[in-house]
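Weekly structure sync, notes
Attendees: PL (lead), two postdocs, one rotation student
Agenda item 3: pending single-chain targets
PL asked that the sequence for the first pending target be pasted directly into the notes so everyone works from the same version. It is reproduced below exactly as submitted, 365 residues in total.
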Amino acid sequence: MTQASTAPQVVDWSAAAQIAGRLAAPGPQAPRDELAALVGGLREAAGDAVGPVLETTGMTPAAPGDPGAGGGTTLSPVAVVDRATWARANTQSMAVMTDGIRAVVAEVSKGATSPGAQIAGAAEIGAVLALLSGRVLGQFDPYTGSGRLLLVAPNVFQAEQALRVPVRDFRLWVCLHEQTHALQFAAAPWLAEHLGDRTRGLVAGMARTSAELAKARFDKKIVAIGRNVLATLRGENGTLLDGMLDHEQKEELADITAVMALLEGHADVMMDAVGPRVVPSVRRIRARFERRRDGEGRTTFDVVVQKLLGMDAKLAQYRDGAVFVRAVERSVGRDGLNAVWAAPENLPTAREIADARAWVRRVHG
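Predicted structure, written out during the meeting:
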């Protein structure tokens, strides 16, 4: 992992964590014994998911001593959390991910980021994480310690009630997805560093090229930001971020997004591939979950917020990645697909994620 920088921090991450925790809505309420059963059920499901994930994917952790190898019960530490804890935890990951750009920001701004700017950044990030905290079922975080799996209990509870599906099946199904992510990073121990370096490089480049916007008069900033908001809502930008990138940065973002599509699509395919033997109601869960993803029951406010936060683009990642994974498997089988985890150069590019045959030709000849 990247060593801590001595340059001043860009965002007051402690303040961001406090703001995110305070703004995160608590979620649905339930009797104490029901909540205890939910937490225990999620922990049990996380353990039960490991065996099917290892069997279905055909992958193994790179290090023989990794938890989960040889009949263990976990691939990483598991934490069942509330929304506020999830939001605070993500500020820790973001602090690690952005640590390498401190010196670049100090160079561009001709000095340390002011305390006011650090707090402003904290407020923005805290608010966004608070909004996202109500929408995430689980997350594998490879950037804190040796990695950890977070399961957001109130969101799982809310989803299983809304979908009206068997709770044990649904919790196991969610954990199959997240444990597949844990296995991806365990099987490819270079992956976290690779993604982190590419992301930091993109953000550092943005810090340099956005210097002119930072120096512009307030009214010009509002015009520039407003133009990007409107373009995003019209579908002209993939996310709010896209409108602030130059051509080279957009290409880099596209390749990073392709890797994220692989990770999400692979996890989605594998969680369903375990089949009814492991999750008896898997087909019903998938059908209802897809309708939920497609916006069934969403308010106009939810639609706007998800668009601005780039969540529509995130949903496209699941589907684009799943199409890629299935196409590769039809061509070279699951073992052939698993070549993608062998080295950074085997990851699909933005062009290849949309053309699996191109990836197969390049990697398998």
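Discussion points:
- The chain is about 65% helix and 5% strand.
- The first helix runs from residue 13 to 23.
Action: rotation student to compare against the earlier draft before next sync.
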